[in-house]
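User: Here's a structure from my thesis project, written as structure tokens. My advisor, Dr. K., wants to see whether a designed sequence matches the one we expressed. Can you design one independently, without my sequence as a hint?
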């Protein structure tokens, strides 16, 4: 079956598309998120999933334990002491999860930290929805009000790629850590592991001849170094980051990157739309695009990405995302 890709920019497009797919599911809905919060957006999708489960559709929900530790970008433990809003949202999120289970959905949590505090950093950062094993969504949007307010994207997939996402979900659901080998035939392939993504992106940047554009809120040092190397050899390199990052540390880090690589020819843009916050993760290297959950860094260890040379998709990504975002950004 030929792969079909549809770009969904921001929650105004991704939200209705996700809701429509869930509403029309015939057999199964598999949903995986880093966070699924008990606010207006989370409860809306939870109610849809409960309704479908009660209508006989198999519903499985995978949520990372991160959603127990951080709500609306606030750590739960100190937030519990100082913020009534955090306490309220924590209770609403627990109530929502219990409602999903009692309503017929199967719910599992990934990466419980246990007694080893180092495991707090080991997160499953994937955001995927697979419907009837034939339609899937992949990208950077979590199910929460503040995530829906940010600039982001999802991709709707049909065909063999949707089946690949389904197999990746199945591995995580069953607690398996082995890799889902990438499919190399055709214009597009799915990668379900951070090391696979890093290797593939490194090759794309090293082979780029004309232009590389990166948009990410939390970039890693390894990719900035490779982008600077590309700029030194004459490739036009642009990096788009939030003007007002939800994690201020990264604003300082991006300023440091900008100063360090300013003489390479690399252009750093600060995105001013959506109150300054882009949560979008995408890269373009000549005629190849990479989109998904990966911030192109190593602080999250379980990621997913789509690499594609689909001409229509690449052209639309360039026009509707990169060109527009650079146009409303400042250096």
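Assistant: Designed independently from the structure alone:
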């Amino acid at each position: 079956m030929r792969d079909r890709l549809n770009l969904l920019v921001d929650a105004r497009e991704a939200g209705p598309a996700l809701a429509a797919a869930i509403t029309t599911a015939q057999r199964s809905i598999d949903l995986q998120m880093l966070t699924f919060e008990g606010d207006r957006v989370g409860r809306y999708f939870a109610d849809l999933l409960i309704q479908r489960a009660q209508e006989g559709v198999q519903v499985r929900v995978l949520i990372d334990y991160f959603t127990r530790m951080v709500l609306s970008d606030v750590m739960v433990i100190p937030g519990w002491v100082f913020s009534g809003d955090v306490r309220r949202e924590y209770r609403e999120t627990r109530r929502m999860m219990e409602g999903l289970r009692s309503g017929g959905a199967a719910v599992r949590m990934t990466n419980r930290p246990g007694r080893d505090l180092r495991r707090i950093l080991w997160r499953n950062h994937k955001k995927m929805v697979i419907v009837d094993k034939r339609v899937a969504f992949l990208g950077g949007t979590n199910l929460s009000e503040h995530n829906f307010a940010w600039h982001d994207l999802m991709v709707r997939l049909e065909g063999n790629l949707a089946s690949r996402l389904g197999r990746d979900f199945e591995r995580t659901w069953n607690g398996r850590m082995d890799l889902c080998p990438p499919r190399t035939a055709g214009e597009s392939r799915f990668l379900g592991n951070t090391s696979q993504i890093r290797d593939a992106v490194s090759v794309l940047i090293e082979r780029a001849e004309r232009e590389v554009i990166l948009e990410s809120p939390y970039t890693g040092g390894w990719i900035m170094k490779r982008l600077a190397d590309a700029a030194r050899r004459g490739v036009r390199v642009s990096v788009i980051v939030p003007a007002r990052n939800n994690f201020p540390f990264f604003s300082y880090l991006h300023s440091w990157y900008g100063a360090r690589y300013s003489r390479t020819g690399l252009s750093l843009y600060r995105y001013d739309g959506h109150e300054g916050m882009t949560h979008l993760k995408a890269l373009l290297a000549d005629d190849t695009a990479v989109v998904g959950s990966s911030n192109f860094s190593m602080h999250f260890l379980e990621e997913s990405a789509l690499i594609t040379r689909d001409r229509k998709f690449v052209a639309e990504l360039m026009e509707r995302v990169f060109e527009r975002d650079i146009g409303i950004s400042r250096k």
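When you compare it with your expressed construct, this may help: DSSP finds eleven helices and 17 strands in the chain.
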